[in-house]
Amino acid sequence: MIRVLKWGGGLVGLALLVLVVLVLQAVYFRPLSISVFYEKAFIEFALKSPETLSAIRLFDAIGLHGHNAELDDISPAQTEEFGRKMRENLDVLHEYDRDKLSGQKAMSYDILDWWLGHQVAGQRFTWHGYPVNQLFGVQSNLPDFMANIHHLGELRDAEHYIARLSKFDTKFEQLLEDLAVREQKEILPPQFVITKVLEEMRNFVAQPAAENILYTSFAERIADLDSIDSDTRDDLEQQVMAEIDATVYPAYNSLIDYFERLDNKVSESHGVWALPDGEAYYDHQLKSHTTTDYDAEHIHRVGLAEVERIEAEMDAILRSQGYDEGSVAERVLQLNEEPRFLYPNTDDGREQILADYTAIIDEASELMPQYFGRLPLAPVEVKRVPEFKEETSPGAYYQGPSLDGERAGVFYVNLRDLNELPTYSMRTLSYHEAVPGHHFQTALQTEMKGVPQFRKLLGFTAFSEGWALYTERLAWEIGLHEDPYDNLGRLRDEMMRAVRLVVDTGIHAKRWTREQAIDYMLSKTGMVESDVVTEIERYFVLPGQATAYKVGMIKILELRERAQSKLGEQFDIRAFHDVVLGLGDVPLNILEREVDNWIDTTLQST
Question: Model confidence over 182-206: pLDDT tens digits?
Answer without folding.
Answer: 999 999 999 999 999 999 999 999 9
